Amino acid sequence: MEDSLIIQENDFMKIREKIRRNKDRKVIFFSNDDELSRKILEKEKIDILLISQKKRKDKQKQRNSGFNQVLAKIAKKKNVGIGIDLDEIIESDEKEKSRILARIKQNIRLCNKNKLKMKFISLSGKNKRNIYDLKALGLVLGMPTWMTKSL
């Protein structure tokens, strides 16, 4: 995580400018707008796409996890990892936490199918966990062992 740049912006041109200025650093992109996330994933060089699971509305028979097979194929082609926001999991209440974990499980299945790497990311330093805790959480959520090795 050291020497990485976390971009949380809603304007495409500002994001593009920040990415171009920091080519030598690892770029983590984070947005609540799914269309903007797809646009950045398609057009820019980022290392990790951090998908926010909070404030999403699930449909009656389907979860809205902000990640689908189309995004998975683009991420595979551009060699982009998918990020899981650790702060969201830790700081949410029980009901919301169960929804977030279910959406993350769905994303893990998609990433496993497309052989994408996943990473736990804590935006605030206070929720950092050691690697063994993260691997255990990953295994409980359904990550295969090859995915937990690169956490």
Shape: globular
Which class do the helix and strand fractions yield? alpha/beta
CATH-defined topology = TIM Barrel
Q: What is the CATH architecture descriptor?
A: Alpha-Beta Barrel
What is the strand tally?
5
CATH superfamily: Metal-dependent hydrolases
User: Can you tell me the residue ranges where pLDDT is under 50 for at least 5 consecutive residues?
Assistant: none
- Taken in chain order, the helices and strands follow as EHEHEHEHHEHH
On the 0 to 100 scale, the average pLDDT is: 92
For the largest sheet, list the strands in their spatial order: 1-2-3-4-5
Provide a count of the helices: 7
- Specify Rg, calculated over alpha carbons: 15 Å
Report the span from N to C terminus. 11 Å
User: Largest beta sheet, briefly?
Assistant: 5 strands, parallel
Briefly say what this structure is.
The protein contains seven helices and five strands; from the N terminus they run E-H-E-H-E-H-E-H-H-E-H-H.
Overview features:
TIM Barrel; alpha/beta
List the helices and strands and how they pair.
Blueprint: E1 4-7, H1 12-21, E2 26-31, H2 34-43, E3 48-51, H3 69-78, E4 81-85, H4 86-91, H5 94-113, E5 118-121, H6 131-141, H7 145-149
Parallel strand pairs: 1-2, 2-3, 3-4, 4-5
